[in-house]
Design brief:
This protein is mainly β. It has a domain of 59 residues: SH3 type barrels. It has 1 helix and 5 strands, in the order E-E-E-E-E-H. A hairpin with a 6-residue loop joins strand 1 and strand 2. The radius of gyration is 27 Å and the shape is rod-shaped. The chain starts with 39 loop residues before the first strand and ends with a helix. The mean pLDDT is 78.
């Protein structure tokens, strides 16, 4: 609603600032961390099953080769072949902790 020149509400603050600049941000929401730090982990592991038709790969930890296979979602990991049977696996730190790799 337009303000009339010479009225009492001429100098009162507007309900909402231009482009919303007088609105305060919600203090409960924390901003995302943006500092260039990487949450990725590189591990050298045995590749047990790598079927491109499956949605997961199976690996084994070289430190515990007799342990059961660990299945990882193909959408969360990347890997390159290092030696016959070994790969260098890159995955998020939370996934490596969840699967007991670190």
């Amino acid at each position: 609603m337009p303000r009339e020149i010479g009225t009492d509400d001429m100098f009162t603050p507007r309900e909402r600032g231009r482009f919303g600049d007088n609105e305060s941000a919600d203090k409960r929401v924390r901003p995302q961390r943006v500092n260039g730090a990487s949450d990725l982990v590189d591990l050298t592991v045995w590749i047990m099953m790598d079927d491109p038709n499956k949605k997961a790969i199976a690996i084994a930890d070289p430190a515990k080769p007799t342990k059961t296979w660990i299945w990882l979602p193909r959408s969360q990991v990347e890997y390159v072949k290092a030696e016959p049977g070994l790969i260098v696996l890159t995955l998020p730190q939370w996934l490596a902790k969840d699967k007991g790799l670190i």
